[in-house]
Structure formats: structure tokens, C-alpha cells
């Protein structure tokens, strides 16, 4: 299979190269930029001698003619337009941005603060939460890869919500992210001097991932769900931890809930459920496509604490995108994604 990557010079695009350069069935055919054409190893010197392919301009007709799949690792607004231009061109599209994830264009415009693509395009996009939407992903031509925070939050909440074990109005998701989640374009908030030895909350009750999380939770719950979701920037390069608090409908101890999580995710190679009393940390998934989950049920308060961790660039972006491509083409789900986390 031949793949094209647009947005190659960003962090998500760079991570796609790291994965696909060693993929057994998907070969990187072309990589693209809006800037000057040059070997990508000039942009990313760590690729020198390993992957020196030249970045070329974005010509959608040519890309569609030459490749089987295109990965859009581009900013929101840009991605939606590119996805539209690839439609009906006999090429599969995986978009890493938020442009195709929300089914309601009005909600998109309210949260993303710019124009949505047409509803007819949104309706064709399949939401690519790999573990929960595999059948639809298998037949998708246009795939909306989930956001980094929603991936961690939804994988952590799904078993108890789908089994209707929690009060769906009680969900609080406290999320923390490393700085690569903000992308490669410099901004005040990501300056070393502002970030180092700091811990900041941002986009309080305004984060664009709130409607994405609520959309999927409402589908599972068959009734509208609203969540409290807060995001924090922490001085690490990669990694997301979501600490989720929910009220249980009836008392259930930690062991029973862990059994439910283990059964639910049995056969899903990238979800690892921890033992009773053990919680995952972000470094334990760094550089890998794993989502690790730990939990504890507090009989005193009746609340359940769920902790999920991912690498935002892997399971939160490029890793899940390749996992979805594997499902779309019928390859083994783990193909190209068997890297062991980088520890310590
Ligand atoms: N970073 C993360 O952890 C995650 C990111 N995402 C999403 O994935 C996408 C990529 O993110 P990330 O890699 O972090 O972002 P970056 O800012 O690091 O990179 C974005 C890339 O998009 C390209 N680009 C910018 N404008 C245009 C344009 N008008 N036309 C074509 N290409 C353009 C740029 O490439 P060039 O300058 O070479 O043209 C740039 O390198 C975003 O939508 C982001 O929201 C999703 C989940 C997690
Ligand atoms: C740390 C950090 O700034 N993270 C970004 C993640 C954005 C992202 O990935 O955006 P989409 O998923 O909507 O494309 C943020 O919180 O906005």
C-alpha cells in the first residue's frame, strides 16, 4: 500500500514517518509541505541516513492518483478543505485534526470558532476510536482520527458507561498533557521559560475536545451526557494522563471493576489494564501505541477513580491513525506498531 503524508514537518507528521518507515505493508510514497522542497532530513536531522525522502508540494490530483491512502497531519480548517478535495478520488483519507469528528457543523463552529465543512462530508466520516468502532472503520474511506484527550478519556470511561454502571451526569475528567500536544508552531505558552517547572490549566470549560467526548459518551449512553473536562499543560514532551472521577450507581469493588475492564479489552492489543493497587504513569507508554488504565473504587464516597495514560503523538494521533489504516486495509492491527515504550 502506498501512503502520502501532508503536514509532514509537524509533530504528528514526523511521528507518522517514525512508524511508517518500518511498516511491513504500508510504504511512504510521498511527503508534502507548503514550504520549499527539500529532504525531510534537513527539517528533521534525526532522520538523516534513515529516511531522506524529499518533501514536495501538495498536488491533490497527483497524490490521489499515486497513493492508496493519505494522512492529513494538518491544522484544523486546513484538514477539512483537503479532505473535501480528496473525496471521490479513489483514495482513503485519515485526518488527524478535529475537522471531521463532530457530526453537528453548528457545534463545530461554536467550539472551533471557524467554518465547518459541509454536513454531507461530516456524515461520510467515520470516528476512528479503534477499539470501539472497528466494524465501521473497516469500511471507511474518510476517517476522523480521534483527539488525543478524547482517546484517553473515552477508553477509560467506555467499559463502565456502556455497562450503565455510573451516573452519567457525574463525570469529571481532569487531564494533563505534555507540550508536544500543542504542535510544533511556537507560541508564548510553549516557551521553555514559561513551561519549565510550571503546571498550567488552560481553556477552562472551553476546550474543543468537550463536544467530541460528549458526542461519543452520549451515543454509548443513548441519552445526552455532559462532562466537566479540564486540561493542564505540564513540562514533559510527550504524554497524557486523564484522571476521571465518576459516581457509581451501586457499590462495586475495585476487583470486580478491574475484571470488567480486562474482559472488555481482552483481545485488544493496545489496551493494558493494571492490577489492583497499581496505576500507570505516562512514561510507561511513551513512544508506544498503548493506553494503560488503572482504577480504584472508593466505598467511602461511592466514587470510582479511573486513570488512563497515552502518548499523545502515538495512541493520541499518529499511532491510532496507523492502527486505523491497518483495520481499513485488513492488516494485522499491530502491524508497524509493536514498539516497546521508551523507558526510562
Ligand atoms: N500534537 C498532538 O499531540 C496531536 C495533534 N493532533 C492534530 O493533528 C494535526 C497536526 O498536529 P501537529 O503535528 O501537532 O501540528 P504541527 O503544528 O506540529 O504541524 C502542522 C503541520 O501542518 C502543515 N500545514 C500548516 N498549514 C498548512 C496548510 N495551509 N496547508 C497544508 N499544510 C499545512 C505544516 O507543514 P508545512 O509548514 O511543512 O506546510 C505543519 O508542519 C492538528 O490538526 C492537531 O490538532 C491530534 C492529536 C494529537
Ligand atoms: C497541549 C495542547 O495544547 N494540546 C492541544 C491538543 C490539540 C489537538 O490535538 O487538537 P485537535 O485534536 O482538536 O486537532 C489542545 O489542548 O488544544
Could you outline the blueprint of secondary structure elements for this entry?
Blueprint: E1 2-6, H1 11-20, E2 27-32, E3 38-39, H2 40-43, E4 54-56, H3 60-66, E5 69-72, H4 78-86, E6 92-95, H5 105-112, H6 119-124, E7 125-127, H7 134-138, E8 142-144, H8 148-162, E9 172-177, H9 192-195, E10 200-202, H10 209-221, E11 228-233, E12 240-247, H11 254-264, E13 271-273, E14 291-298, E15 303-310, H12 314-329
Parallel strand pairs: 1-2, 1-5, 2-4, 5-6, 6-8, 7-8, 9-11, 13-14
Antiparallel strand pairs: 3-4, 9-12, 10-11, 12-15, 14-15
N-acetyl-L-glutamyl 5-phosphate binds at residues 76, 97-98, 147-148, 177, 181-182, 208, 231, 233.
What does this structure look like?
This protein has helices at 11-20, 40-43, 60-66, 78-86, 105-112, 119-124, 134-138, 148-162, 192-195, 209-221, 254-264, 314-329, and strands at 2-6, 27-32, 38-39, 54-56, 69-72, 92-95, 125-127, 142-144, 172-177, 200-202, 228-233, 240-247, 271-273, 291-298, 303-310. It has 344 residues and is of the alpha/beta class. The protein folds into two domains: 2-146 and 315-329, NAD(P)-binding Rossmann-like Domain (Rossmann fold, 3-Layer(aba) Sandwich); 149-312, Dihydrodipicolinate Reductase, domain 2 (2-Layer Sandwich). The strands form two sheets. Strands 3-4-2-1-5-6-8-7 form an eight-stranded mixed beta sheet, sandwiched between helices. It has a seven-stranded mixed beta sheet with strand order 10-11-9-12-15-14-13. α1 (11-20) packs across α12 and α8 runs parallel beside α10 (209-221). The longest helix has 16 residues, at 314-329. The mean pLDDT is 98. The structure holds NADPH dihydro-nicotinamide-adenine-dinucleotide phosphate and N-acetyl-L-glutamyl 5-phosphate. N-acetyl-L-glutamyl 5-phosphate binds next to β11. It is an enzyme of class 1 (oxidoreductase).
Amino acid at each position: 500500500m502506498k501512503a502520502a503524508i501532508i503536514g509532514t514537518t509537524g509533530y504528528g507528521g514526523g511521528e507518522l514517518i517514525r512508524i511508517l518507515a518500518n511498516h511491513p505493508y504500508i510504504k511512504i510514497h510521498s511527503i508534502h509541505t507548503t514550504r520549499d522542497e527539500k529532504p525531510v532530513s534537513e527539517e528533521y536531522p534525526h532522520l538523516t541516513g534513515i529516511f531522506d525522502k524529499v518533501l514536495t508540494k501538495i498536488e491533490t490530483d497527483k497524490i490521489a492518483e499515486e497513493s492508496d491512502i493519505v494522512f492529513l497531519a494538518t491544522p484544523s480548517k486546513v484538514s477539512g478543505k483537503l479532505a473535501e478535495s480528496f473525496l471521490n478520488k479513489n483514495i482513503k483519507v485519515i485526518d488527524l485534526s478535529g475537522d471531521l469528528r463532530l457530526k453537528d457543523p453548528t457545534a463545530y463552529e461554536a467550539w472551533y470558532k471557524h467554518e465547518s465543512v459541509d454536513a454531507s462530508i461530516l456524515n461520510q466520516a467515520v470516528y476512528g476510536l479503534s477499539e470501539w468502532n472497528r466494524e465501521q472503520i473497516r469500511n471507511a474511506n474518510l476517517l476522523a482520527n480521534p483527539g488525543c484527550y478524547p482517546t484517553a478519556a473515552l477508553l477509560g470511561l467506555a467499559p463502565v458507561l456502556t455497562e450503565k454502571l455510573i451516573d452519567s451526569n457525574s463525570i469529571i475528567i481532569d487531564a494533563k498533557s505534555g507540550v508536544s500536544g500543542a504542535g510544533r508552531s511556537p507560541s508564548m505558552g510553549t516557551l521553555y521559560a514559561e513551561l519549565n517547572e510550571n503546571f498550567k490549566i488552560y481553556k477552562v470549560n472551553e476546550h474543543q475536545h468537550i463536544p467530541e467526548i460528549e458526542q461519543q459518551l452520549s451515543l454509548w449512553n443513548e441519552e445526552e451526557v455532559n462532562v466537566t473536562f479540564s486540561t493542564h499543560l505540564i513540562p514533559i514532551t510527550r504524554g497524557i494522563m486523564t484522571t476521571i472521577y465518576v459516581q457509581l450507581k451501586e457499590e462495586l469493588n475495585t476487583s470486580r471493576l478491574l475484571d470488567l475492564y480486562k474482559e472488555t479489552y481482552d483481545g485488544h492489543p493496545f489496551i493494558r489494564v493494571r492490577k489492583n493497587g497499581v496505576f500507570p504513569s505516562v512514561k510507561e507508554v511513551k513512544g508506544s501505541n498503548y493506553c494503560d488504565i488503572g482504577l480504584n473504587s472508593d466505598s467511602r464516597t461511592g466514587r470510582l477513580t479511573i486513570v488512563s495514560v497515552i502518548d499523545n503523538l502515538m495512541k493520541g494521533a499518529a499511532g491510532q491513525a496507523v492502527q486505523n489504516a491497518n483495520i481499513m486495509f485488513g492488516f494485522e492491527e499491530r502491524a508497524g506498531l509493536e514498539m516497546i515504550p521508551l523507558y526510562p
